[in-house]
């Protein structure tokens, strides 16, 4: 009777076709033990050895091990299966009479010899596999911190400074408010606006060429320009002015008199103190102090005064600028004087004469909203994006408008700038801008992935602007991204590659409303929607003086915390990671709000913390299973619904169901996939496809101006609820019922339900695949 070995271990797809040494040893031992047990069992009347199998065992040193013949068995006897008797048997034994001791000894000797031969043969095959055959398991089965550190340890601060100096030769700096804190420490100011400096040149081709030359010389693959002809709103031939009607005094935005001498000394600086895409012209009207322009402020003011065609004195902060301007425009104001109250800045900063520029553009080329500015595209004719005359001014000019002394600090308490209620100020505001079609250039290069080249990690910075925080002018985003490329490419040249493709982008036109990134995203939207895994934002990577302030999607927050804790073990100080999901400035905007791509941004204290960003990039690019956390999204949703919030009972119930489905997905699919033995290629690919698209369920179509379409992001660190709900509750306070609130509640409910259905569908797909295999 013939026997076949039963394979008890169900190999996962993608496992090596050869057994390793331990498997062959176990096979030999099982063979010896089971055959002895089988022979000793009562009722075992007869058996026969297949002649071909016996021959193969006798010549095992010249025959390959054929695993195709090893099939699972259902025999109640255990791991051997009794087969039908065959006609060409060699010998036939019966147990009707007792066997002699000599016969039993012979059979045992044969079994022992067979086991020894298989054991030796297994050792030879195992040695051959480990020395000559590559493994089919993923090349990056575990987080290789040593590899990442080997790459990142070559980053030097001096290299970043040198890269910045090379870029800086292309243009001239213009002053802006200098801040020593991170943007999260002043979330209501720096998060909701772009305070930028512009180079003297209107086109950024010169600096783009330098970036391309640097990246190409470092070995980055296929570095190229991606150009778009877009509508830019530029300063006029002369700076804007504010004239006091009572005295006839004329002032520039920085508070200096409109003298010829002052204009000559700082003409370029004054020109670039403006609001891009503002209406232009002249307006003479009363100035009304609206503080931060909150809904309550406007309601109070409108009860006391007629605001039609008046000029609002508006502080930056607390809400997105575009949202506040929309409220002022709706209320009937004709102009806005925009400023930063010194009380909202650190004590070490004196912004009295600082001037700045803000874009009123929500994103992309205003003449081609929602579609790319490629040749042949229809262009809408609009030179401004608001009917308001908007002009940024310095705190010193505000002090002159309200007749306030410069020293407003008493007993270390700062007194906010405020126009007295019983006084009337009339000014003449003149705003001059020019609208032109200009070329915006993006620089794009990549490192091709090895196993999943069609999955992209985008690392984005910007050029044509230069930030200066506490004198650290070398901390520009382009210099940082170039330093990372310089550290990465030597490893690539020696043969190493990440599993997924890393795409490096330096965007143009960021100062005018993230135009370069928007146009590129709209141009390649179909590809990016399917293939982008994550966006790493290096908009302002080095700023602040003490604390790391990462901003990340909920699905990436756990990874950021793990990276920070791991790096803390190598440093003397280990500060707590203050991570949040708040609206951030910069070119991550399109990827977060239109593609639903998980994103992360770091703000650094010094060069050492640059390792965090580099490790996150490498781990996302190189891990077989994307390091995204599904359950954290569900927990974030539940946290957003905490507190005393009206009409949220349905949202809470739906959020509970989302958490249940996310927990099942996390335990049933993600945890097993983190075991290398369970990493079947088709299973990993399906899992990663689900992980990279989790946030798309939380994109809503219509939001108030300046608010994120991705509702997982908050307005600032102090706001723990869904931003669109916060705005809707403020809007409906004086009303018994309001459609705006109901609409906002519906948007959040539909997003939560969509995510719940998404996770359930993912679980069903995995179950169907597994059932099909069984």
From TrEMBL:
- Keyword Membrane tagged: yes
Carries keyword Transmembrane helix? yes
Transmembrane domains' residue ranges = 108-129
User: Which keywords does this Swiss-Prot/TrEMBL entry list?
Assistant: Membrane, Signal-anchor, Transmembrane, Transmembrane helix
Provide the Transferrin receptor-like dimerisation domain boundaries: 649-758
The UniProt record lists the Peptidase M28 domain at: 442-606
Q: Which SUPFAM superfamilies match?
A: PA domain (SSF52025), Transferrin receptor-like dimerisation domain (SSF47672), Zn-dependent exopeptidases (SSF53187)
Q: How does it sit in the membrane?
A: Single-pass type II membrane protein
The entry's family comment says: Belongs to the peptidase M28 family. M28B subfamily.
Q: PANTHER family recorded for this chain? A: INACTIVE N-ACETYLATED-ALPHA-LINKED ACIDIC DIPEPTIDASE-LIKE PROTEIN 2, N-ACETYLATED-ALPHA-LINKED ACIDIC DIPEPTIDASE
Q: What is this protein called?
A: N-acetylated alpha-linked acidic dipeptidase like 2
Native organism is Callithrix jacchus
What gene name is given for the protein in this entry? NAALADL2
């Amino acid at each position: 009777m013939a026997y076949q070995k039963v394979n008890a271990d169900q190999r996962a797809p993608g496992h090596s076709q050869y057994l390793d040494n331990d498997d062959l040893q176990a096979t030999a031992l099982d063979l010896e033990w089971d055959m002895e047990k089988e022979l000793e069992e009562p009722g075992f009347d007869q058996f026969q050895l297949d002649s071909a199998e016996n021959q193969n065992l006798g010549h095992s040193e010249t025959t390959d091990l054929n695993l195709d013949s090893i099939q699972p068995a259902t025999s109640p006897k255990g791991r051997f299966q009794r087969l039908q008797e065959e006609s060409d048997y060699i010998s036939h034994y019966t147990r009707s009479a007792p066997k002699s001791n000599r016969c039993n000894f012979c059979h045992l000797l044969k079994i022992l010899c067979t086991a020894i031969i298989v054991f030796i043969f297994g050792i030879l095959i195992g040695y051959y596999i480990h020395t000559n055959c590559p493994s089919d398991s993923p090349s990056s089965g575990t987080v290789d911190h040593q590899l990442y550190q080997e790459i990142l340890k070559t980053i030097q601060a001096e290299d970043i400074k040198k890269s910045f100096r090379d870029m800086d030769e292309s243009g001239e700096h213009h002053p802006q408010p200098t801040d020593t804190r991170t943007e999260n420490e002043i979330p209501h100011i720096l998060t909701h606006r772009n305070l930028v400096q512009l180079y003297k040149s209107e086109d950024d081709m010169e600096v783009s060429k330098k970036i391309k030359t640097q990246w190409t010389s470092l070995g980055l693959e296929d570095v190229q320009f991606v150009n778009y002809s877009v509508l830019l709103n530029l300063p006029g031939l002369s700076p804007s002015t504010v004239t006091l009607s009572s005295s006839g005094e004329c002032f520039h935005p920085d508070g200096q008199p409109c003298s010829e001498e002052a204009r000559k000394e700082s003409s370029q600086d004054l020109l670039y103190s403006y609001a891009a895409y503002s209406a232009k012209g002249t307006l003479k009207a009363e100035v009304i102090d609206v503080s931060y322009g909150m809904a309550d402020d406007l309601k109070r003011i409108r009860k006391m005064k007629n605001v039609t065609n008046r000029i609002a004195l508006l502080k930056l902060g607390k809400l997105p600028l575009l949202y506040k301007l929309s409220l002022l425009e709706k209320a009937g104001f004709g102009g806005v004087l925009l400023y930063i109250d010194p009380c909202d800045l650190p004590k070490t900063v004196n912004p009295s004469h600082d001037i700045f520029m803000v874009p009123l553009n929500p994103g992309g080329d205003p003449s081609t909203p929602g579609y790319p500015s490629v040749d042949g595209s229809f262009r809408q004719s609009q030179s401004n994006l608001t009917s308001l005359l908007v002009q940024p001014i310095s705190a010193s000019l505000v002090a002159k408008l309200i007749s306030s002394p410069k020293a407003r600090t008493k007993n270390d308490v700062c007194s906010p700038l405020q126009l007295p209620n019983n006084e009337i100020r009339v000014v003449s505001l003149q705003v001059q801008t020019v609208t032109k079609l200009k070329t915006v250039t993006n620089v794009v290069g990549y490192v091709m992935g090895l196993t999943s080249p069609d999955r992209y990690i985008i690392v984005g910075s910007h050029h044509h602007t230069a930030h200066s925080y506490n004198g650290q002018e070398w901390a520009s985003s382009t210099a940082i991204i170039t330093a990372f490329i310089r550290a990465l490419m030597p490893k690539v040249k020696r043969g190493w590659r990440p599993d997924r493709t890393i795409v490096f982008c330096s965007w143009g036109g960021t100062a005018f409303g993230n135009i370069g990134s928007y146009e590129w995203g709209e141009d390649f939207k179909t590809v990016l929607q399917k293939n982008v895994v994550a966006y790493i934002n290096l908009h302002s990577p080095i700023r602040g003086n003490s604390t790391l302030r990462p901003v990340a999607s909920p699905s990436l927050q756990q990874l950021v915390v793990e990276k920070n804790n791991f790096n803390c073990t190598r440093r003397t100080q280990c500060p707590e990671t203050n991570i949040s999901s708040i609206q951030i400035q910069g070119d991550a905007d399109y990827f977060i709000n239109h593609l639903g791509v998980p994103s992360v941004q770091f703000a650094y204290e010094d060069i050492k913390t640059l390792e965090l960003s580099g490790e996150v990039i490498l781990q996302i690019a190189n891990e077989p299973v994307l390091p995204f956390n599904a359950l954290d999204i569900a927990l974030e949703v539940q946290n957003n619904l905490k507190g005393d919030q009206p009409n949220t009972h349905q949202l809470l119930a739906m959020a509970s169901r989302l958490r249940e489905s996310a927990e099942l997905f996390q335990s049933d699919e993600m945890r097993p996939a983190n075991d290398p033995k369970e990493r079947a290629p088709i299973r990993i690919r399906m899992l990663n496809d689900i992980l990279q698209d989790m946030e798309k369920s939380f994109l809503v179509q219509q939001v108030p101006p300046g608010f994120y379409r991705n509702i997982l992001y908050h307005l600032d660190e102090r706001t723990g609820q869904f931003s669109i709900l916060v705005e809707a509750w403020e809007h409906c306070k004086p009303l018994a019922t309001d459609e705006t609130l109901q609409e906002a509640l519906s948007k959040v409910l539909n997003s939560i339900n969509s995510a719940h259905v998404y996770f359930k569908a993912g679980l069903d797909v995995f179950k169907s695949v597994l059932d099909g295999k069984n």
